[in-house]
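Researcher: Go.
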Amino acid sequence: MARSARRYSDEDVEHYDRPRRRTRPRTKERPAYDDAVAGVVVTVDRGRFTLLVETSDGPVTVMAMKARPLGRKGVVVGDRVRVVGDVSGAEGSLARIVEVEPRTTVLRRTADDDDPVERVVVANATQLVVVTALADPEPRTGLIDRALVAAYDAGMAPLLCLTKADLADPQTLLATYRSLGVPWVVTQKGGDLSELRERLAGETSVLLGHSGVGKSTLVNALVPDAGREVGVVNAVTGRGRHTSTSALLLPLPGGGWIVDTPGIRSFGLAHVEPGDLIKAFPDLEEMTVDCPRGCTHGVEEPECGLDLAIERGELDADRVASFRRLLEARSVPAYLL
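Model: Structure:
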């Protein structure tokens, strides 16, 4: 028989095609999930999500997984979600996240400045609290500058929290940021935290800083039952040991939320366009209307409107210098912070 001859005749059963895979008619209709309840993501651990779900009896801690229809859509700490299934919070129970509400803000970073992959740190936060020790370990302005850039890019209000004021004078560091108008609070071990509590009230605040600067100590003082582990600073390297291994959202007794994040040693800004940073400073942006096309408003830019405004006495030179330092923060390798 020729190789091209048909193996079966039209009368053979085998002639008819077998049903193909995925022949079930597709539909755009999706479940309405009318019985879904609202929750907020508190922490994430290996594909499992801890939520706080509001019930008639008050907030309940619920374990959940992401529903398959969400696909690769990321779910992070701070996300407001809708949940179905067992939301009793009983041991061994597991609910399903079926919807992620639109985010109002997104705090992002990259592993390094040439890394194209953005990592969402926290969603829906309103305030970024940059926690910096005045000594032990010594303050590193590189991380502060980068954190401020990330806050402005995300549309979050920045706040400097200077810890260990009993070991060093805060005025030297504050002088660097005062011209930018960044608000600040100063704390020390066992000191009064009333001013910090006022700044945090009603906000969703992300605590960000190097290991060993006192983030977990602050969290334990602000939320007495938080139980965050407190580390020490290595006497040789001057660096702190990571005590927080994942971001954790906690409700504040006086209203509002705080997010304790793991200590970081790099904060890439590959996702931030330098030209967009000035939008966070309306008074500076106003002076750049007549800048040459392509002006980045940096130190070496010819005929930059910021320099002309300084010459006319319309802008403070220190404020412009501080803004340009934030621009230059992207040129410092993230791993050197």
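Model: The longest strand covers residues 37-45.
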